[in-house]
C-alpha cells in the first residue's frame, strides 16, 4: 500500500486540505503541546459554518476543548433522560446542544481535567427556522418516502427551538441538574451574534 501522501485528492475540497496541510506543516512549531487543555475549559457551540470559535471566543491552540453539534441526537423521544432522570424538552434544544454533547463533556472533565464550560448558541441558527414537520417534508422530498418512513419509525426529533435565550438557559440548567457534572464546574451561557461577530453573556 502506498504511503498516504501519494494518494490523490479526489475533490477540490480534498485538494484544499492537501495544500493547507503542506502550508501548515511547513511552519508548524507547536508539537509539544500537552494533551489536556492548558486553560482547562470547554466551549460548546453550534456547527454553523459562520462561527470561528478560535477567533470569536479567543481560543489559542491547546487551550480548550471545542465541541460543536447541531440538534440533539436523532433518537426516540423519551419523557425523561434515561441517565439523569431530567425531563427532556426537545422543543428547546439546538445547535450547541448540551444533551447531545454530554458524553464529550464528561470525558473532557473526568479524563482531561477541564473545569469550566462556556455554552454558546447563536443568532440565525438553522434550528430556529424550522419545525419538525417541515424537516420531515424536506427529507421526504429529498430522499423519498422510504427515508421518510424510517424517520417516522424512529419518531425522529430534530429538536428545533423557538427562543434563543431560553434555549441557552435551559441547556445550562440541564448541565446543572446532571449528576455527571460536578457542582464545582463553572457553567455560563452565551449568545453569539452572526451579524456583529460579538458574543453576549446570558447566564
Ligand atoms: Zn446553529
Topology-level CATH name: Beta-carbonic Anhydrase, Chain A
Q: Give the total of domains.
A: 1
List each distinct ligand once: zinc ion
Cα shape: globular
Name the CATH superfamily assignment.
Carbonic anhydrase
* Total DSSP E strands: 5
Secondary-structure topology with pairs:
Layout: H1 12-27, E1 41-46, H2 53-57, E2 64-69, H3 98-110, E3 116-122, H4 132-143, H5 145-154, H6 164-177, E4 186-192, E5 199-201
Parallel strand pairs: 1-2, 1-3, 3-4
Antiparallel strand pairs: 4-5
Helix pairs in contact: 4-5
Bound molecules: zinc ion.
The site of zinc ion has 7 residues, from loops.
Walk me through the structure.
With 203 residues, this protein is α/β, with parallel strands linked by helices. It has helices spanning 12-27, 53-57, 98-110, 132-143, 145-154, 164-177; strands at 41-46, 64-69, 116-122, 186-192, 199-201. The protein has six helices and five strands, in the order αβαβαβαααββ. Strand 4 (186-192) and strand 5 (199-201) form a beta hairpin. It starts with 11 loop residues before the first helix and ends with a strand. Residues 46, 48, 95, 122, 125-127 line the site of zinc ion.
Amino acid at each position: 500500500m502506498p504511503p498516504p501522501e501519494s494518494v490523490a485528492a479526489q475533490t477540490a475540497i480534498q485538494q484544499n486540505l492537501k495544500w493547507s496541510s503542506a502550508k501548515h506543516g511547513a511552519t508548524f512549531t507547536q508539537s509539544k503541546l500537552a494533551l489536556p487543555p492548558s486553560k482547562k475549559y470547554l466551549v460548546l457551540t453550534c456547527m454553523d459554518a459562520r462561527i470561528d470559535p478560535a477567533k470569536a471566543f479567543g481560543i489559542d491552540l491547546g487551550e480548550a476543548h471545542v465541541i460543536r453539534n447541531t440538534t440533539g441526537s436523532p433518537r426516540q423521544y423519551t419523557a425523561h433522560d434515561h441517565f439523569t432522570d431530567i425531563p427532556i424538552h426537545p422543543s428547546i434544544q439546538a445547535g450547541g446542544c448540551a444533551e447531545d454533547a454530554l458524553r464529550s463533556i464528561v470525558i473532557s472533565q473526568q479524563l482531561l481535567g477541564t473545569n469550566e464550560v462556556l455554552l454558546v448558541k447563536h443568532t440565525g441558527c438553522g434550528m430556529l427556522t424550522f419545525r419538525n414537520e417541515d424537516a420531515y417534508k424536506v427529507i421526504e422530498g429529498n430522499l423519498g418516502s422510504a427515508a421518510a418512513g424510517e424517520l417516522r419509525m424512529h419518531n425522529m426529533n430534530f429538536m428545533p427551538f423557538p427562543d434563543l435565550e431560553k434555549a441557552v438557559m435551559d441547556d445550562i440548567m440541564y448541565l446543572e441538574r446532571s449528576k455527571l457534572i460536578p457542582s464545582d464546574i463553572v457553567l455560563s451561557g452565551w449568545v453569539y451574534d452572526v451579524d456583529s461577530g460579538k458574543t453576549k453573556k446570558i447566564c
